[in-house]
Amino acid sequence: MSIGPVSSTKITCKRCGTCCKKGGPTLHTKDASLVRHQRLSVASLVTFRRGELAYHPTELRLIELHTDMIKIKGKNHSFECLFYEEAEGMCSIYEDRPLECRTLECWNPGPLMDMFLKDLLVRKDIFSKSLYEVIDEYDTKFQPSRLLELLKQGDKLGVARLEELDQEYRESLITSGIALEGEMDALLGRPLTLLRRAFESIL
Question: Nearest CA to 19 among 69, 86, 114?
């Protein structure tokens, strides 16, 4: 590993990028300061909510999440971490990289595996109390488990209606000034349209 040039704004690290291309890191409670101090913008994050499915790296199977899992977004609708600069093989936020990135050693994945689903950062750690009610209301109205149930039942009309209501809810938050459009993926998680596609890929 070789350290790239140091600038006034960031330190970059030359590395193979294999892990960076497989997905952005999940954030843990120790990463809260990165968001609070705007080292990581809320707009760069996406929340996987309770009831969504995630791949368990040691059990090698999909499991249902029982809490938030906040991750750095992928780049251009891919899994590649938003902050990985492939042309240069560098991390653009290396100096402020999250805990998982600091922990990972390619030759020793054990410590990172041990972190899975432990001490996870949740939305109420990064959003103001004024938005707690929004988070709770949305999670009640638009539970991933409800969408999955409708898909299993083959209820296309029910799915379409739920997706429509989801879009209306999101737009109402933006137009009323309650939330910023760029922060919606972190505040509410992925739109149900995208979540449906993810569910359909495993059904």
Answer: 86
